Amino acid sequence: MSTSEHNKNLPPVDQMPLQMGLDTFGDVTVDTDGNPLHQAQVIRNVVEQGQLADRVGVDFFGIGEHHRPDFAVSAPDTILAGLATTTDRIHLGSAVTVLSSDDPIRVYQRFATIDAMSGGRAEVVLGRGSFTESFPLFGYDLGDYEKLFSEKLELFSRIVTEEPLTWNPGDRTSLKNQEIYPRTENGLKQWIAVGGSPESVVRAAQYKIPLMLAIIGGPASRFKPFVDLYKRANDQLGQDQLPVAVHSPGHIADTDEEAKEQLREHWITNRNRIGRERGWGNTGVVEFENEAQHGSLYVGSPETVATKIAQTVKDLGLNRFDLKFSNGPLPHEYSMRAIELYGTQVIPMVREMLDQ
């Protein structure tokens, strides 16, 4: 395992200001009359959403990778490259890059290119992916799910050192003193996305990569043992503590009632579609309200959402919080208003609450 330093120029975690981001999977949406949009229009809308996030002061904009009909984005780095040239300050990254079914060298090259285009604002969030359509699509055996991620993460950890690469393990062609281009100016910032596996948490510490926890249901506080495990692992490895982030779904409108009314049907539709594929029972209004009240669904007015985010940040000791603002077929117009409220009202309120 490579032990070279990653994520150059990071300050100590206790000196890092809280970062507030937004994530989208490019969910295929409907218009305000309920008519489905073409995937091409959805992609154009994602670009517009990222540009708005930049203008209203959001710190990070992440785009996920999927290969299925209910998500329009299969190549997030292409959209991120477009945003790199049409935004000024926001950091741009994946949410996530499915490393197991990709080539680590090409992943590095694409994000190093985005980093150059954006003036050092690129981030890559690496994960195994909660959906598996990419494996047969690109010729991989799902039986190798764990093996593929382990081998490719090891290779990626060597590539990002930006030193000549020698590589023999695995099924790919061996490399000897191979240079990989382009090099970044200040290193490529990375995260490992984890859904709740202790082994994955420890692995992130072993590779000295910041931890991104995907919390999509239940109280966020139940993930405190994973944060504590990550910190213990860093201590036991004799290294500095590294940032911890959370990704969770939500929606913001001017009032609690409006936010819930806009989201409820689309959240239930999305949850039941995925649930049918995974053998879950159907959900409904009761579970929606429970997640909004007690779980990891951040829905409501700016003050309601800010209060809940601030509590999660305090409970888990976070350095970043990313709101997954796209929710199934929720219309683009509602998401644009949510982005505006997140940047102009929620983020300032969260920071004020934490300062107090």
Automatic annotation (TrEMBL):
It comes from the Bacteria. Keywords: Monooxygenase, Oxidoreductase. GO terms for cellular component: cytosol. The keyword NADP does not apply. Gene3D superfamilies: Luciferase-like domain (3.20.20.30). One of its GO terms (molecular function) is monooxygenase activity. Residues 32-319 form the Luciferase-like domain. It holds the Pfam family Bac_luciferase. This is LLM class flavin-dependent oxidoreductase. It comes from Rothia terrae.
